[in-house]
Amino acid sequence: MPRQAGRHFLQIPGPTNVPERVLRAMDMPTMDHRGPEFALLTLEILKGLKQVFKTSADVVIYPASGTGAWEAAMVNTLSAGDKVLMFETGHFATLWQVIANDLGLDVEFVEGDWRRGVDPAEVEARLSADENHAIKAVMVVHNETSTGVTSRIGEIRKAIDKSGHPALFMVDVISSLGSIDYRHDEWGVDVTVGGSQKGLMLPPGLSFNAISTKALEASKTATLPASFWNWQPMIAANKTGYFPYTPATNLLYALRESLKMLLEEEGLGNVFARHRRHGEATRLAVRAWGLEILCLDPEEYSAALTAIMVPEGHDADHLRKVILERYNMSLGTGLAKVQGRVFRIGHLGDFNDLMLAGTLSGVEMGLAAAKIPFNKGGINAALDYLTENP
Amino acid sequence: MPRQAGRHFLQIPGPTNVPERVLRAMDMPTMDHRGPEFALLTLEILKGLKQVFKTSADVVIYPASGTGAWEAAMVNTLSAGDKVLMFETGHFATLWQVIANDLGLDVEFVEGDWRRGVDPAEVEARLSADENHAIKAVMVVHNETSTGVTSRIGEIRKAIDKSGHPALFMVDVISSLGSIDYRHDEWGVDVTVGGSQKGLMLPPGLSFNAISTKALEASKTATLPASFWNWQPMIAANKTGYFPYTPATNLLYALRESLKMLLEEEGLGNVFARHRRHGEATRLAVRAWGLEILCLDPEEYSAALTAIMVPEGHDADHLRKVILERYNMSLGTGLAKVQGRVFRIGHLGDFNDLMLAGTLSGVEMGLAAAKIPFNKGGINAALDYLTENP
Q1: Residue B63, preceding peptide bond in cis (omega within 30° of 0)
Q2: Which of A144, A244, B132, B300 makes an SS bond possible with A233, Cβ 3.0 to 4.6 Å?
Q3: ipTM (interface pTM)
Q4: Is the N-terminal amide bond of A15 cis, ω within 30° of 0?
């Protein structure tokens, strides 16, 4: 096959498009991670990261991808046999639960249909029923990357409070951080788990834990073994700008650059508004096509991605293949139990109106090429919305 | 103003989007231009360049932008006071004529309305009238970047032949080379002038002369002073892969990469077909908007860019400003006598369907934002054409 000209449209829901400035920031010699210049880098980054997590608490950075930070949240705070309450909101919530099982935790896994977020009333009921406080942690995925459904973290916090239950509250924000408003402190989250390759516009390879005082306290008595993931030496070394072991130096250069872009140059409020606007434009296109959005509750629509169902008898992965071959665009596959039934459009990270217009045009042409029944005009619905809501 | 997120759409008719692979190819240490590795680089590039010009004749590479190669074509072949026949097809043809005047040539400049290419019959008539063969060169711009109008070089060659006139034939292909089919040998062109920053997908800074045997012969008696531009030492040094003075080393790395992409990976035939297809899709959008294409003759439509007239009483530069500010896209301004009256969409270089869809969406939304009267649906006309003509 001849070369496909032009830029590839990487519209999976992460890893996202890395801005060229961020790529160039990485493209510098690796420095001494015990030297004085490095300490300044670390301190600057940690200050910025706290703004992104909206916390004054500690944030640690692992030279590991998000799956590692999931594990870190648990091994620092829990002991073998501890009970945790988790919710099957989608593929990633399911995978987090697998890790909990691997670590010997006793998971109460609330089944779900992958089309809704966590129900705060369900959280309250489950915790209220747990009179002996056997549940040590409630664990929720903020933005389910497999479904385009968000869970209402603030309301879940209120539900926990109403139950009067002392369980820790842990939240995965891997695909929402830097894309969808998130408030670690205000929402009383104990451990927030983030990653580098989505809203932060970096390649994969860094992940984060934001840690409340209560979680830090719990870490002192937790007995699951933790060494690489251990918060204590990390927090201690970070105080002066260093790490207990080798950090991912060049990804930290990239993080400094992306934090500058998000916090100083665009502003988090603008970043979130941009994502909401592109989510709404995408959903208007989907409705105009006559296709169904996987997420059922408008209050839970994700601003980072949209998962779209193909009509019965059609294969979403065939559509994705046609779009990749003809239009040089990668869209997200349906994972696990929605494989072949949905495809996902990522509209997060370093993204703008004309990239969205190209993306939606590619889907519209792809639907025709893959002979999936649909109505034309999705692109127009999106452009009208973008025009009327500058 | 806050940072504009996402990729900038650089849709001026050149410099064009430089592929990241080409940027990375340049991003290497500058090498010894007298060393053995450099000779291999030069010889490989010259071989590829000849394929792009469709010539077996000599091609020289200047470490200078296109304006320099315009001058080179003349100082190598002509003498002060020589008469040359030139045609006002647009701004760049006019600028080439200014240089001819600067050099002391006697220019017969055929006026034009900027909406048509050179008329072969006019060439034949002018040459036939020149019984004493005072005209030493006929100079034509193949693709007028200011107007989106091409001139039919093959037909002009036939007109020259019919007149039996011995004038040299010089053609500027700066904005057509690597985008629109061009045949130096078959069309009997004596000097072809090219540049790096358009279809070749490079930054500006390199330019070319392809030189027929007849032109090389003329250079032996031409008396305009030439040193930097002098073909003879360049051709002599090139034989072994070197240059008579310092070449633009890192741009040559880039050129090697882009030639590989155009010739080996995509194929010139595919490259030209891609440009024609995007030109047609763009014109369908323009017609659906109810706007007028500057180029009057469909046979002369440019596959590299389209110049579009705004309705009377509206300012094309205001539209461009609105589009830049709202949609992060650069479009070409109207130059000189069409300033404010036209804007230009570049659809050349490293470009694909979804980049075009984003581009046309930006124009469609921009027309609305700038309150220029138009009909919606340009984007649909383009997408329908692209879908039906994969």
Answers
A1: no
A2: A244
A3: 0.94
A4: yes
Q: With an 8 Å Cβ cutoff, is B237 touching chain A?
A: no
What span, in angstroms and rounded, lies between the C-alpha atoms of A304 and A102?
A: 30
pTM of the model as a whole: 0.96
Confidence at residue A1, expressed as pLDDT on a 0 to 100 scale? 84
Q: What residue in B sits closest to A261 (Cα-Cα)? A: B3
| Secondary structure class of B71 (helix, strand, coil) | helix
For an interface test with B, give the residue of A265, A354, A385 to mutate (most B CBs within 10 A). Answer: A354
CA-to-CA distance for A153 and B88, rounded, in angstroms? 67
Asked if residue B206 lies in contact with residue B62, where contact means CB atoms within 8 angstroms, the answer is yes
B140, B103 contact by CB (below 8 A):
no
CB contact under 8 A, B261 and A3: yes
A270 touches B: beta carbon within 8 Å = yes
Q: Nearest residue on chain B to A376, judged by CA atoms? A: B380
**What distance in Å separates residue A67's CA from the closest CA in chain B?**
27
Residue of B156, B207, B216 lying closest to B186 (CA atoms) = B156
Q: Which domains does chain A carry?
A: 9-16+267-388 (3.90.1150.10), 21-264 (3.40.640.10)
Give me the residues of B, 5-44, that contact A with CB < 8 A. Answer: 5-7, 9, 17, 20, 27
pLDDT in tens, A255-305: 999 999 999 999 999 999 999 999 999 999 999 999 999 999 999 999 999
- In percent, how much of chain B has pLDDT > 70? 100
Cβ pair B189, B155 in contact under 8 A = no
3-state secondary structure labels for all residues of chain A: CCCCCCCCEEECCCCCCCCHHHHHHHCCCCCCCCCHHHHHHHHHHHHHHHHHHCCCCEEEEECCCHHHHHHHHHHHHCCCCCEEEEECCCHHHHHHHHHHHHCCCEEEEECCCCCCCCCHHHHHHHHHHCCCCCEEEEEEECEECCCCEECCHHHHHHHHHHHCCCCEEEEECCCCCCCCCCCCCCCCCCEEEEECCCCCCCCCCCEEEEECHHHHHHHCCCCCCCCCCCHHHHHHHHCCCCCCCCCCHHHHHHHHHHHHHHHHHHCHHHHHHHHHHHHHHHHHHHHHHCCEECCCCHHHECCCEEEEECCCCCCHHHHHHHHHHHHCEEEECCCHHHCCCEEEEECCCCCCHHHHHHHHHHHHHHHHHCCCCCCCCHHHHHHHHHHHCC
User: CA nearest B93: which of B45, B144, B128, B138?
Assistant: B144
Contacts of B108 (CB under 8 A, 6+ apart): B83, B84, B85, B86, B126, B135
Rounded CA separation A87/A312 (Å)? 27
In Å, how far are B25, B231, B248 from B44, measured between CA atoms? 15, 19, 16
Q: Do A365 and B358 touch (CB under 8 A)?
A: no
Tens digit of pLDDT for each residue in B41-88?
999 999 999 999 999 999 999 999 999 999 999 999 999 999 999 999
Residues paired with A110 in a beta bridge: A87
Using a CB-CB cut-off of 8 Å, the residues of chain A touching B265 are 2-3
Token pair in block for residue B235: 């051709």
Of residues A17, A355, A379, nearest to B383 (C-beta): A379
Q: Are residues A6 and B352, on separate chains, in Cβ contact within 8 Å?
A: yes
Q: Which of A357, A369, A377 sits opposite B358 (nearest CB)?
A: A357
